[in-house]
Amino acid sequence: MSPGTPVRRALTGATALRGGGRWRPTPYQLAGLLCWLALSLAFWAVPLCCDAGLHAAAIERLRDDLLHPRHPTADLPGAGSPAYTPCALAQGVFARVTELGGREVLRLAGPLNLLVLLAGLGRFVRVLSPRRRAPVLALAGVTLLWGAQAGGWSGGPGPASTLPYPSVLAAGLTFWAWALTGARARDTEPVRHVGPGGLRGLPGYAGLGVLYGLVLLVHPATGVVAGAGAAALVAGWQRGWRWALAGRWALTGAVALLVGAVWPYFDVAAAAGEPGAGIPATGGALWPALLGLPALWLRARRGPRWDPLVLMAVVGGAPALYGWVGGHPGYGGMLWLAAVASVCALAVELAAPRPWPVRRRVLGAAATAGAGAALLGVTAGGLVPGAPGPAVSASSRWPDYTWAARHIGRGEVVITDGVRAARTLPGYGPYLVAPVVPDASLDAAERQRRTAAVRVFLDPGSAPAERAAVVRRYRVRWLLLTPRTPLPAEAVVVAWSGRTGEVLARVGGGAAGAGDAGGRAAPSRPAEVTR
Predict the structure, then answer these.
(1) Chain centroid offset of residue 340 CA
(2) Mean pLDDT of 136-149
(3) β-strand 431-432 against 413-416: which pairing, if any?
(4) Strands 476-481 and 503-506: what pairing?
(5) CB within 8 Å of 176: residues ≥ 6 apart
(6) Res. 92: pLDDT tops 90
């Protein structure tokens, strides 16, 4: 052997099994890690806002009683409330074991939800295409779909402020379920890389059904989207249909429905049909998905059969269009399916190796220009005076109510006229007289009565006897009022916020009577509040 001949060293043990090479992160792993760090830091840097207080309230009730929790925001039985999902139950158990509050648990859940979402997206795109850059481009597209608006609702994945929402976890689990479904429908060897669900046979199909059932329970609206996407994947990729094969997919669907039916906390069908349960069809946030329409058109032309992503776009876009034309906003949730299919199709198309044909170069230039415009829209608040601010800035303006919560005991009832206070306070442990979000566990007539009682109490023309009746009936202990609402004479000011001008006052429980017995009038609203 000549001195210049390369010699391969002998490999032993685990090194021999790996072929002796060093592990190197993929482009998506690097991009996903950077995205996870950036969004997690942004999430921890701003206060919890929007619907986070309502989710924290559900954790607080489960922390008190795992089997029979009270209503998340009202001092009523909570049987049938869709807030008590498997995600909330796990968080309630964690809060009970660690003695953390609901808000602290959400702080930990946000990055975990994001990790599930990023990993699921990468797995799904890998099933769509083996091109290494495709998941990175899909991540960039999905990030632009989230837009810059702070998450005021729990309908779907969004910017950093929405990370603790169950819908983000449901979206991540949906990507994992689609990856398993797509790999199984294509009947390819990469199934073994997708996870334990890749095992052949009936147990694998049943396990996949459990995963879809879990998505349905965590967020029913996303569960409907997940099921529609799964049907598109199977219809587009499955070959060699036989009765046995059809029975296996039927088993997956039946197990998913069974998992949803046996959940003891609420009725999945009722939760999915509630007003506002669907994802709003906010075209302003989803317009970057239009950039993927040419890619979908190219995929539709290539084969004699329908492409799964094209089917997903059709199945998602048609109901959303019907809902927009017919005035049914609940169908808007399907638009998320069409948007994701469009973005993934564009990512796969632009990840093709070079040299590119003219049509792909034109598509790449259009996508670059559209991405730049979308990115400018996200950051416009920091560049153009008066423009809508980015999500982090919008979330940072959400007020914190720790100053009020330190005076209010767990389970005490509050009347408030502020929307933000009503969405935030229950996360600290108190109850409201009238919940701000309807759900199946609270009868509509009862909710209307409670809303009317709050309106009577806050009406300056109401007699003291009428206000006292409301206090006695609903066991009201506290008022949290904005500067626009006059403070009742019988209320005793305890604290106020210099930032928002809101006042916390005590009523009921003999507090006002004690003040009257001493011959002292209730303290007036502080000067800095009346400005």
Answers:
(1) 15
(2) 77
(3) parallel
(4) antiparallel
(5) 116, 119, 120, 123, 124, 195, 211
(6) yes
φ, ψ for residue 416, nearest 5 deg = -140, 150
Would you state the structure tokens that stand for residue 497, as one six-digit string? 């916020």
What does the DSSP assignment read for 424-491? HGGGGS-EESS-SS--TTS-HHHHHHHHHHHHHHH-TTS-HHHHHHHHHHHTEEEEEE-TTSPPPTT-
Band (416; pLDDT cuts 50, 70, 90): very high
Q: How far apart are CA 405 and CA 466, in angstroms?
A: 27
Angle at 358 between CA 357 and CA 361, to 5 degrees: 90
Which among 348, 346, 85, 340 has a CA at the least distance from the CA of 228?
340
Q: Are the beta carbons of 190 and 420 closer than 8 angstroms?
A: no
pTM reported for the whole predicted model: 0.84
Angle between helices 293-302 and 308-326 (to 10 degrees): 130
Alpha-carbon distance of 506 to 47, in angstroms, equals 26
* Residue position matching structure tokens 């060699």: 240
User: Can you read off the two tokens belonging to residue 272?
Assistant: 């999915």
Helical spans, DSSP H, in 264-390: 268-272, 283-286, 293-302, 308-326, 334-350, 358-383
CA count, 13 A, side-chain hemisphere, 183: 27
**Per-residue pLDDT averaged across 464-493, rounded?**
91
Give the Cα separation of 107 and 45 in Å (integer): 10
For residue 269, give the amino acid letter.
A
Please list, residue by residue across 248-260, b when 16 or more beta carbons sit within 10 angstroms of its beta carbon and e when fewer do. bbebbbebbbebb
Q: Measure the CA–CA gap between 100 and 52, rounded to whole angstroms.
A: 16
Residue found by looking up tokens 């044909």 in the block: 357
Q: How far is CA 379 from the centre of its chain?
A: 22
- pLDDT for the residue numbered 189: 41
Q: CB atoms < 10 A from the CB of 403, how many?
A: 16
Alpha carbons 275 and 278: distance in angstroms, whole number: 8
Q: Which residue in 293, 10, 335, 19 sits closest to 156, CA to CA? A: 335
Interval 205-229 mean pLDDT: 93
**Beta-ladder partners of 437:** none
DSSP 415: E
CA distance 387 to 368: 23
Calpha distance 337→340 (Å, rounded): 5
**β-strand pairing of 413-416 with 476-481:** parallel
For 216-261, the DSSP string reads: HHH-HHHHHHHHHHHHHHHHHH--S--HHHHHHHHHHHHHHHHHHH
**Helix 358-383 × helix 334-350 angle, to 10°:** 120
Q: What are the phi and psi torsion angles at 505 (to 5°)?
A: -130, 150
**What is the dihedral sign for C-alpha 154, 60, 501, 461?**
positive
Q: Please give the DSSP secondary-structure letter assigned to residue 500.
A: T
